[in-house]
Amino acid sequence: MFAKLVCFAALAFAMLVCDVSAFGQARFKERAVYGGLLVCIFYLGFLFVTEKRWPNLDTLFNLFTGPAKRIVSWLNPTASSS
Amino acid sequence: MNKQEQISSVQMTILFLFYLTGSSIVIIPAPLTNVAGNAAWISLLIALILGMLLLTGILYLYRRFPHQSLIEYSGSLLGRGWTVLLFIPFVCVMFWHVAGIVIEIGAFFKTTMLKESPTYAVNALLFVTIALTVRAGIEAIARMAPLLLILMFGFIFLVCVLVANLYHVEYLLPIVPSGIGPIFHAAYIAYGFPYAELVVFAIILPCIRPKDAPNVRKHLYFGLAANGATLLLSIICSIMVLGPLSGDLKYSLYQLARLIFIRETIERIESVIGFSLIVGFYFKASILLFILVRSVSHLLKLSNERLIVFPVAFVCLLLSLTTYTNEATLEEIVNTTWPLLNNVAYVCPMLLLIVAALLRRRGRKMNGDG
């Protein structure tokens, strides 16, 4: 966990240092989008460091697994029986 | 990385070829032969034909709107509200798409070369490289591509030539071992990865120099055909060397490279070949990250897309570390869910735009006649 935290913090620090001057000159809209992305980064970073199984993009994608399996078994009936 | 950046149609074709072949050359032979056995090449041909149809679709839209990306002309065809509604899933799926490629690179490294290294260290280094590449812009990416393309394709052909002494042509028979169902199933997999993914290229087609626009059609068809031929070669070579095992061993091309043994002088060259295959993954991820940043920028109408490269890459990195972390679920999404997800998020908006463009054209003609 500590190694993950260090990795995340180092990358976040490097990113913020690289972007700080451009952020200062950016318009409100760009700053808002950047802020929104930062919120996502901190949420996902928290999931990464703590290994929590909280909602993520895969939770949404898994909703498609059932219909996709039905398509596969329609295309290849032997796939569902094997 | 700015709006004025333009590349030639040959450079765009090289990027297109890299994008389609980059990761699929390593990954696709195994699931196809696993499902369809010796008929995997037939499945690939079916998927390739579907890919040709999709390419025809994006080229039709490009001909109608040569100076606008998919999102920009969606705004003029469907209005802002529908565009936002259609392209939010498009962008969300693309976020994971970039992450998915890096998950695959991480898995490839983990199983073949860097077995003890933590996945997050490998993925983080890759993402830093990819993000820096995207910050350099599409012109820099396009200038860098030809040499690396030659390197990657050169090594693919080299592997196929050097394992020629292990070919067993009889392994290709019977051609259809388990009926037509598995062929369609494997075609579904190959359609989802990589052919349905080519729709996202509609975002960067306006980067082609206007004077090169007339050539883009034949160049991109050639790129798609070259990709099909290369994947076909790699599938047929894996079947001829590995036989029934080709479906069970992941990263077929790498497995073939491991078998190269010529008079104790050329052996254990799989790492060299492995790194040239990594180049394909890296390029695909770079091109896709560029497309993602541009999509976000067009969707939200941002004036400075360079600013969001690092945070977008960071989100993708964290998605690669927090989603589908075990191999079984990753395999399920790639082989089962991804083709459907691709269709819903990428192909459906494109088809809707084609219908809208055709209706508008018909309406204008009727108004003109009236």
Protein model, in words:
The complex is a heterodimer of chains A (82) and B (370). With 82 residues, chain A is mainly alpha-helical. Chain A folds into two domains: 1-51; 55-82, no CATH class. Chain A has five helices and no strands. In chain A, 21% of the residues are buried. Chain B has one domain: Amino acid/polyamine transporter I (Up-down Bundle). Chain B has 14 helices and two strands, in the order H-H-H-H-H-H-H-H-H-H-H-E-E-H-H-H. Chain B has helices spanning 9-21, 24-27, 29-36, 40-64, 70-78, 80-112, 119-136, 138-162, 180-192, 216-242, 252-258, 270-299, 309-322, 327-369, and strands at 261-262, 266-267. A two-stranded antiparallel sheet of chain B has the order 1-2. The longest helix of chain B has 43 residues, at 327-369. The mean pLDDT of chain B is 90. Chain B: It is a multi-pass membrane protein. Chain B: Its main location: membrane. Chain B: This is GerAB/ArcD/ProY family transporter. Chain B: Belongs to the amino acid-polyamine-organocation (APC) superfamily. Spore germination protein (SGP) (TC 2.A.3.9) family.
Characteristic terms for this protein:
heterodimer; A: 82 residues; mainly alpha; 2 domains; B: 370 residues; Amino acid/polyamine transporter I; two-stranded antiparallel ribbon; 14 helices
CATH class categorisation of chain B: Mainly Alpha
The total count of strands of chain A amounts to 0
Count of DSSP-assigned helices of chain A: 5
Helical residues, percent of chain A: over 70%
What is the count of DSSP helices of chain B, taking H or I runs of 4+ residues? 14
Secondary structural class of chain A: mainly alpha
* CATH-level-4 superfamily name of chain B: Amino acid/polyamine transporter I
Distance between the termini of chain B: 46 Å
CATH topology (fold) name of chain B: Amino acid/polyamine transporter I
What overall form of chain A do the CA principal axes indicate? elongated
